[in-house]
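--- STAGE predict ---
source: upstream dedup step, 1 unique chain passed
mode: sequence only
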Amino acid sequence: MFSFEKTQRIFDINGIKVGGQPGENPPVMISSMFHNKDKIVRDRKGNFDRERAKEIIRKQEELSKVTGIPGIVAMVANSPEEAKIYVDFFLETTDMPFGIDMWVAEQRAKATEYIAKIGVQHKFLYNSITPWDKDIKGQVARLKDLGIRHVVIQAFDDQDQTPAGRMKSLESILGQGADSFETMIVDTSVMNLPSTSFSLIANRLIKEKHGLPCGGAYSNGTHMWKEIKDIWGLEGFKAMDAVIQGMSSALWSDFNFCGPAVTAPRVFPAVASAHMLLSTFVYDETKTIFDNKNLPIRKYFSDFIGKLQQGGTRKKEK
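--- STAGE serialize ---
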């Protein structure tokens, strides 16, 4: 259940490892900033609260350090000009890798040209090559010409929304040249909270067959369930969000588009806690806890690991 015969690929995005066997590397949290209704955004011309934005970034950096959960920030923009302002600010503020979240392909392409112009392709995660793109082969060729190294591939089939449909979608996109990048991570497309399970099952199927890092925007399933705040209240929503983010990150997920960066104080601890349970699930199945100093279980329960590996947690047979 938590170990694959297929060799699992591990990619490196500016020092952040993503992929591998379950429990081998902590899942990467990809948070968002400058999204719709983000309180730090003053307008869509690139005016924003820079000091508060720095505080949010610093908090995510701090949480990454103490939990072992690595972080990336995806910046939402409506135009290439707006994206340029955010990218320049981000590069001045932190060494974290980053992405640009733009739904319109033509606008995303222009913003990506700026990334190539300033030569930071090694820090940039392109999000994403999708099944709705009209010319995937052309898009791949253009990205290769720009020196883009790290890409997200979104897997989803409108006609077959099962896990198998996501697999078919991925294989179609890979067959159009998207398998040629230095890094390829697969977003298995969360549509709502209950269908998150389909994305998680798709993660397992894809890792079993292709060995590629998989994950999803698990925050889609939580933040789009808007009426639940009226039913459960804000604290109930926060609890639900933390549970879904943690549980999903532990089930065959190498990364997680985890929602607004301002929610990192609840998401990172939730994911770290879930990953500690994943580590002991893996140990029960494989008798291995990976030798990775960034694993949350190694950061917080190193003594327990020592006893476990020595058999000290088991009762001696009479």
